[in-house]
Sequence to fold (485 residues):
Amino acid sequence: MSGARFLLRLAQRRRGLNFKLCQCPRGASLERRPALLYPRPRRGGRSPEAVARGSLLADPYILFLLGLGGVVLLVSWAPVGLKRLPLTLAILCVALGVLVFSSGLLAFDPDPRTWDTATERLTELVVIISLMGAGLKIDRVPGWRRWSTTWRLLAIAMPLTIAAVAWLGWAGLGFSLAMALLFGASMAPTDPVLASDVQCGPPSSGDEDEVRFGLTSEAGLNDALAFPFVHLAILAAAGGLATQGGLVDWFSIKVGWKLLAGLGSGLLIGKALGYLLFRSRRGLSSLADGLIALAATLIAYSVTEMVHGYGFLAVFVCAVMIRGSERDHHFHQEMHDFSDQIERLLMMLLLVLFGGALANGLLSSLTWTDALVGLAVVFLVRPAAGLLAMVGSGQPLRERLLLAFLGIRGVGSVYYLAYGINHGDFGDSERLWAVVGFIILLSIVVHGVTATPLLQRLNRRRETTAAAFPEGAAPANPPASKDGD
Fold:
């Protein structure tokens, strides 16, 4: 027996394999047939080809691509089909996530408690893209009087909501002071992502009544203005509330500097980009496409974060400044459409993962007391705070009720909760995640089912009033002048 054949036999005995060798003349080189690079299957085993076919059928990556394709189809077609129904794309995507992840087809568990850093970053990206779209939508020129609804919701409704929710968390759920503050801060913002159905229409579309404007502008600004309360919760978790230095640092840096840096960066970057797009000699808007919206979003956010400001505030202010550079230019529509498509795609992906987290036990720690607190947040706290904020505004009662009720909770709340837990020591947070997840699910269903019919009914009533009093009736949304207040 030749040396090569002896070594091969020895290797076969040690590994338990049985390679088939071709018969070669003495002196010829030893070869293996190409098909015999795999070992022969043992009796009762599966052939390599069968194993390959089975792995393709259950490959999670292929299933992910299939699911992503389905989500993209939903993003493209569902808004048209659901236009006349009291349903939203968000409800369908959550249901799809629950169905897919309950079936056992995917072994991946998208629980935000496990993927805490990824949850923070992904929700952060979705929020800043939605903030750019929100800023580009607004036709109304900024001003104290014209934006009075916004200032009322931010200065009165938001702090009242934070205080009430924090008290419910502390007194009703037994949370520590730090965790109760984080609970209140995460429930403060009207979500700019999920609230897109009740926001203004595309730029210059005329779909901007007082309710839609108030919810759009509130969602654009309160994501940044609620951030100091998240930092206050982190400070409380570290025991800093008992020290003068901690409170001074919070007020001077987390409140003062970060807000000013966010506002200043947004103004400067928005003005610069507006000049380059519309007022420079070449007018870069004629050479660019909607991708500029994404570039503006990332630049405004990253530059502001580099100077330790609130990037959320900078992105929204930047969008408002770009819009104000040439208010009626058609390029705003192109930027808005691109931003809206990216936002919807990422939002639907997030909601499918949220449905998967629900299917894998996100609410397993929820108690009846937690559920009652969640119902109170959606049906009592925000509506009451919103109505108090609108006292003396002069708005009709129906509009005040809608502004108070449609304070939707969603992706922004997930971001704040993930950020706080990743940057502070709050102890066991499973129950807090369960309560927040329940409130978001409740908001998606309740506001998703009711928002469209309520706004359509308000529009019909306006049209009826305008038809009954054609001469004396004031327009629902008088055009704003462009020279201040």
User: Anything to note?
Assistant: Residues 72-107+116-463 form a domain with the Na+/H+ antiporter like fold fold (CATH 1.20.1530.20). The first helix runs from residue 3 to 15. Residues 109 and 146 are 47 Å apart (CA to CA).
